[in-house]
Design goal:
alpha/beta; binds iron/sulfur cluster; 13 strands; four-stranded parallel beta sheet; Dimethylsulfoxide Reductase, domain 2; three-stranded antiparallel beta sheet; N-terminal domain of TfIIb
């Protein structure tokens, strides 16, 4: 019999249908999947005891307590240390993957000197050489002050007769103004939220990733038992903080100074109501609460994504804190 195109197509179609219905290809696929999971090329982590180590997150000034779960090959998991005061059993999302950052493809692996990539050791030696050669004072820019490494920056700069220049974080903007007015070093003052009866946020995102991860949410959730602190938000955004606050006052954008002046008794309530868009009754009530629910405190700084409140407004907030007798305490300095 002559084999033509018709027969060939029939044969190919029959083979395809027969192969799909036969268990052979599926069994082969299954076996090869199992086999490749166990062959000698598969990396096998060394077996050993699982231990836990405790430390502090160094990514920001909050220094939350971290528990690292370690195997013989290194850290394989990160969790919050529930007993630690900072963080209080919560961490930022990024920290849960911190142990994998060492393998991140975009991780910085080299330093740059004169536009060329060099080893870190070379860059350090070059920096030391230039400092020696110039005989000049060194200034180090620390964009995220308050971390453990910040203390090292401070030590190096002081050893060179220089200084560390820092950028104020959103949490520190109001504190910086108070420190300037009080004539104390940056980082000396801190907020004693745990003993406050009322906290007034002037646009500060207190209930929205502000400060250490667990601190504000812990305070907020405890109010049902202790009745304090009372959170009051006064700002121009219907933010998460505004939504979670016990009381939210939505102002006209840019009218924060008028609000603070009225609360300090330096501007007539009616005039402030006109500027801020709030009712005179709500302004009077807030001014009264600030004085009656002691200790109260006022936090400025503005939204995280903004450049903050004007300097004059921050100064007015600092003066208002003094007027209402806000309690402050010294922040323990890192070693
Ligand atoms: S707030 Fe987040 S980044 Fe800062 S120390 Fe705590 S876990 Fe780390």
């Amino acid at each position: 019999m002559a084999i033509g195109r018709r027969e060939l197509l029939g044969l190919a179609g029959g083979a395809a249908v027969g192969g799909a219905l036969s268990p052979v290809p599926w069994k082969l696929l299954d076996d090869s999947a199992i086999w490749t999971q166990n062959w000698s090329w598969t990396p096998t982590p060394a077996r050993g005891p699982v231990t836990e180590r405790f430390g502090l997150c160094t990514l920001c000034a909050a220094g939350c307590g971290v528990k690292a779960r370690c195997g013989s090959a290194g850290v394989f998991g990160v969790a919050p240390a529930a007993e630690h005061a900072a963080g209080g059993g919560a961490l930022c999302p990024v920290v849960y993957g911190a142990h994998q950052l060492a393998y991140h493809p975009r991780r910085l692996r080299t330093a740059i000197v004169n536009g060329h990539a060099v080893e870190t050791k070379e860059a350090i030696a070059e920096a030391a050489r230039r400092l020696e050669a110039a005989g000049a004072k060194a200034a180090i820019l620390d964009e995220r002050p308050g971390r453990i490494v910040s203390a090292l920056y401070d030590r190096i700069a002081r050893a060179r007769g220089g200084m560390v220049v820092t950028l104020a974080q959103v949490e520190d903007r109001s504190l910086r103004t108070m420190e300037e007015l009080a004539g104390v070093d940056p980082g000396t003052l801190g907020y004693d939220f745990e003993h406050a009866a009322l906290i007034l946020s002037i646009g500060a995102p207190l209930l929205d990733s502000w400060g250490s991860t667990g601190r504000m949410s812990r305070l907020w959730s405890r109010r049902a038992e202790t009745g304090k602190p009372v959170f009051v938000y006064a700002g121009s955004h219907w933010s998460r903080t505004a939504q979670l606050a016990d009381r939210a006052l939505i102002l006209r954008p840019g009218s924060e100074a008028a609000l603070v002046a009225a609360l300090a008794g330096k501007l007539a309530i009616e005039a402030a109501a006109e500027i801020t868009g709030l009712s005179p009754a709500s302004l009077s009530d807030l001014a009264l609460r600030l004085r009656e629910q002691s200790p109260a405190m006022v936090v400025g700084g503005g939204e995280a994504a903004s450049s903050g409140l004007p300097e004059t407004t921050e100064r007015m907030i600092a003066a208002l804190n003094v007027a209402i007798g806000a309690r402050r305490r010294r922040r323990p300095r890192s070693a």
